[in-house]
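fwd from M.: "can u put these together and see what the complex looks like"

so here's what she sent:
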Amino acid sequence: MRRVLAIWVMSSAAVLFAQEFKVGSKVSDFQVQDLDGKPVSFSGLRGQVTVVTFISTQCPVSNGYNQRMNALFNDYSSKGVKFIFVNANQNERAGEVRQHAKNVGFVFPVYKDANNVVADRFGAEVTPENYVIDSSGVIRYHGSIDDSQNEARIRTRGLRLALDAVLAGKPVDLTETKAFGCSIKRARKGT
Amino acid sequence: MRRLVIAVLAASLPSIGALTPVDESAFQKLVESHKGKVVVYDFWATWCVGCRAELPKLVALEAKLRGQGFELVTISADEPEQDADAEKFLKRSAVRGTLYRKQPKSDDQFINSIDVKWSGALPALFLYDKSGKKVRSFIGDTDMASVEAAIRKLL
């Protein structure tokens, strides 16, 4: 019994949050908040290919991708792709997110994820971390934007490859890559 | 007086050279070469706030348990361009021994080779027993008391 209990405790400790959405699964509706606190619903974007990207104002890795994120938005929003850039870090307030977006010249809106509810449902752990959702609401890609912080060493642009495949109605070859970056600063729940 | 103590302490630290790159096979060789010791492999990066907070605590833990057969091995997840910053931080933290930086052909394959359940999130600690078997991982900000307890069970 003690052994069973020990295993249960270890398992419980390992599961820090309940991931609901995975590659191949359908995404049910979720809400983020604009920087004025107004809720924005994913369901309003149904029928579109959507990219959900978790970002940070303070993480150097996320910031290293700022211009690549702008380029992605510019290249793919013109093809009908919707982008939801989400800041789920509980230590980065809306005012800071707004100022950061202005300072770095984001060409897209950034949303907040109060109490990291959306990050929990996606199982997002780091910034930047990305998900591609097809027009039927199914996750087709999860992982990094590309495989190197240093643009000169990029070998695989996972997010672009996935978007190109989904837009062409083809299967995504590389459905999962390891997102790398700073851990999302989560709210302490139940305490 | 405090400055003098720090200066003497710094002068007594081992000199730190360039970070040694490791890929999947180099990591396996590293594990092999550490058989007979309980080892924590600490994957960290200069940009990782949690890692920077954790590393000095790990160094203190190693100092406490070194005599009982525990060793800390640090592997930076920084880009080679950050080597100087990484070395500076490691030196300031009094990290001993060879310093490593992961440099695999494929990050994804490297991460999977260490633990398929690891997303690559940092900080990441992997605890190996004396036989060179991985027995536990600590991903994200970790309570050092639980790391110490897990190490002590293996010593």
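replying to her w this: Chain B has a mean pLDDT of 89.
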